[in-house]
């Protein structure tokens, strides 16, 4: 009986140990990271994406820096770009703390060779969850000489930004048009104020004939015609060359000239 109990206990303990070993093997962060490195070395973008969780985050090459790639589809496209550049990735150092790995790695690809360099070094972290990578962030190490030279070469390849185009005619916003119109009107008034002080009228131009329309002239014209027909220059009470009209007012008084044009003399009162 005692032997049977011991046998059952030993069997249960062995099963428990085996189960714990299996769980540890499945959640081993280094094992997950090695799967990632192997798939990346083969250039298998689909296998790399499969190492990540559904909502996995990747920050690194292939267009995923500085904006991260999120999700397996985006990560797969990024590693297709990386494989097209014939990248070779090798691990340098790793440190494990729980489910997080801190690493340093070296990369070699066509872009690095075009810069006249052998390789660049990156440093980053890997976060493991449920036997997959939940997040992998890798950034170039500027303390490495070759990496610093590569970053400077990349910056020199960036094309300069085109200057901002001026707005075309008719595309000025309404508010800007109102402000511009107000400025033009204000400027026009300022120029006119310089030429002529406000409140002053220009002096009369002496000697320049200008048409006038006065009540005495309008009333005299028909009477002058009648007087010429009746008795021109026959009155002895008026000076020669004048005609007598109603109430004894001589036509032409008030400064009217020939043909109803003023000679420019200022009008007198009355």
Explain what this protein looks like in three dimensions:
By secondary structure, the chain is an alpha+beta fold. The protein has two domains: 2-155, Nuclear Transport Factor 2, Chain: A (Roll), CATH 3.10.450.50; 210-262, no CATH class. Helix content is 43%, strand content 21%. It contains eight helices and eight strands. The chain has helices at 2-26, 29-42, 45-51, 72-84, 110-114, 145-157, 174-195, 215-230; strands at residues 52-60, 64-70, 88-97, 100-108, 120-129, 132-140, 210-211, 261-262. It has a six-stranded mixed beta sheet. Strands 7-8 form a two-stranded antiparallel ribbon. Helix 2 (29-42) runs antiparallel to helix 3 and helix 3 packs antiparallel against helix 4. The longest helix is centred in the N-terminal third of the chain and has 25 residues, at 2-26. It is elongated. It starts with a helix and ends in an 8-residue tail after the last strand.
Q: How would you classify the quaternary structure?
A: single chain
β-strand percent reads: 15-25%
In what order do the strands lie side by side in the largest sheet? Answer: 2-1-6-5-4-3
User: How many distinct domains?
Assistant: 2
Characterize the largest beta sheet: strand count, sense, and whether it forms a barrel: 6 strands, mixed
Under the CATH scheme, which architecture of the largest domain would be assigned? Roll
Q: H/E series, N to C?
A: HHHEEHEEHEEHHEHE
At CATH level 3, the topology of the largest domain is Nuclear Transport Factor 2, Chain: A
Helix count, per DSSP? Answer: 8
Low-confidence stretches: 20-25, 224-237, 241-249, 252-270
Radius of gyration: 53 Å
Alpha-beta content class? alpha+beta
Overall average pLDDT: 74
Query: Helical content, roughly?
Result: 40-55%
């Amino acid at each position: 009986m005692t032997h049977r109990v011991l046998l059952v206990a030993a069997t249960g303990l062995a099963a428990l140990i085996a189960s714990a070993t299996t769980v540890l093997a499945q959640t081993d962060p280094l094992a997950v990271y090695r799967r990632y490195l192997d798939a990346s070395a083969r250039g298998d973008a689909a296998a790399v994406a499969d190492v990540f969780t559904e909502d996995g985050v990747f920050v690194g090459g292939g267009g995923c820096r500085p904006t991260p790639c999120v999700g397996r589809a985006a990560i797969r496209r990024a590693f297709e770009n990386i494989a097209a550049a014939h990248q070779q990735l090798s691990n340098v150092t790793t440190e494990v703390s729980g489910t997080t790995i801190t690493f340093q790695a070296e990369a070699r690809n066509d872009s690095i060779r075009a810069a006249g360099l052998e390789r660049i070094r990156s440093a980053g972290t890997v976060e493991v969850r449920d036997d997959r990578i939940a997040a992998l962030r890798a950034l170039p190490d500027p303390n490495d000489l070759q990496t610093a030279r590569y970053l400077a070469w990349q910056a020199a390849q960036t094309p300069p930004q085109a200057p901002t185009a001026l707005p075309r005619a008719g595309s000025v916003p309404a508010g800007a048009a109102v402000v511009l119109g107000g400025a033009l009107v204000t400027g026009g008034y300022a120029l006119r104020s310089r030429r002529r002080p406000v409140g002053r009228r220009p002096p009369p131009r002496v000697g320049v004939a200008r048409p006038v329309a006065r009540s005495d002239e309008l009333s005299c014209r028909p009477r002058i015609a009648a007087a010429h027909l009746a008795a021109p220059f026959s009155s002895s009470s008026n000076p020669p060359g004048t005609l007598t009209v109603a109430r004894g007012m001589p036509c032409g008084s008030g400064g009217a000239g020939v043909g109803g044009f003023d000679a420019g003399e200022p009008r007198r009162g009355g």
